[in-house]
Design goal:
about 325 residues; alpha+beta; Aminopeptidase; 10-stranded mixed β-sheet; about 25% strand
Length: about 325
């Protein structure tokens, strides 16, 4: 049995694997033959799994971040009753073995984002990998939705009160209409949407088969769509995966109402709510109004190609000189 076959079995029975590292998710975003996994452990006694997708560009082969996939990297199964010292030693052993594997792949570069539950970056640091800090916001307990709403800022409460007078939430069943509103958010920033309609549709259909997705929209009394959101979830969290707003209707603050309804969905499912936060200042500030707890996570990378190291250094010099 191959590592990939063993991993598919593991995904069916291990609830602690995040959705973005599930075999079926990777099938959707990378293609069935476009990803692989390195396992530590014998048979089905799997102690750790490292999922990855190798692609190629002008610099050579690389492992990079995958579109619309918040995190993957290393998943670790911890022995029961492990103390903090034993846990750190265990993590170091696993990470070193994975680093050995990465370095055996003859890559030009490596870069993945890790789940915020992964906190021990030191073994990577000792192997000269770079750790870049990123943040998301998470509402960890949605069991009492009114208590969650009490934690909203006073500014947000006023926005929601006004929005509810003229706007309402409903499910969006038209994938094309959803994608068009989602695309508008990129157009407003003067950039191309980085994924195709077909790519979005493939993820949606994969999640539909697992009963792990919902599309929401905010409409006004004239039936105009103001904002849309795509929610996906696993056994731990609801993730605010995709979001978009019609620039001409942005002033209605319908997106705040949409996020509030998304948090309510997490409440209905009994799960955490992960904003899939941003380090962009205005987005970060908007998310924190909802009272979520900031969670740091690592983007871990290492450049192996001497040519690419030189190119990145030259680019940094050019940016610093501006």
């Amino acid at each position: 049995m191959t590592d990939k076959e063993r991993y598919r079995i593991l995904c069916k029975k291990e609830a602690s694997i995040p959705i973005f590292s599930m075999d079926w998710w990777l099938d959707a975003v990378c293609g069935v033959d476009g990803w692989d996994v390195y396992l530590i452990g014998w048979g089905m006694d799997i102690k750790a799994a490292f999922t990855y997708c190798i692609r190629e560009d002008k610099w050579g082969r690389y492992i990079g971040r995958i579109l619309l996939t918040q995190n993957n990297g290393i998943w670790i199964k911890y022995p029961n009753g492990q103390g903090i010292t034993a846990k750190q030693s265990y993590e170091e052993k696993v990470i070193n073995e994975v680093c050995d594997f990465i370095e055996s792949l003859n890559l030009a570069r490596y870069e993945q984002q890790y789940h915020y539950n992964f906190t021990n970056y030191l073994p990577f640091y000792w192997r000269y990998f770079q750790g870049i800090m990123r943040y998301t916001y998470v509402i960890e307990d949605t069991s009492d939705i009114e208590r969650v709403r009490e934690g909203y800022s006073s500014k947000l409460k006023n926005i929601l009160r006004k929005a509810r007078k003229n706007l309402y939430i409903e499910r969006e069943n038209d994938l094309g209409a959803f994608f068009e509103i989602n695309r508008m958010s990129f157009v407003r920033q003067g950039i191309e949407i980085p994924y195709s309609y077909e790519y979005f549709k493939k993820i949606y259909e994969a999640c539909m088969q697992k009963g792990s997705v919902e599309l929401l929209c905010v409409k006004d009394l004239q039936c105009r769509t103001h904002s849309v959101a795509m929610l996906v979830w696993d056994s731990m969290s609801v993730y605010f995966l995709l979001n978009g707003t019609d620039p001409e209707l942005k002033a209605s603050q319908g997106n705040a109402l949409l996020i509030d309804s998304s948090i309510e969905k997490a409440h209905e499912l009994g799960l955490k709510f992960d904003f899939e936060g941003s380090v962009i200042k205005n987005v970060n500030h908007a998310y924190r109004e909802f009272g979520g707890r900031p969670k740091a996570y690592f983007r871990i990378r290492k450049v192996f190609s001497a040519e690419l190291i030189r190119a990145e250094a030259e680019m940094q010099i050019m940016q610093n000189s501006k």
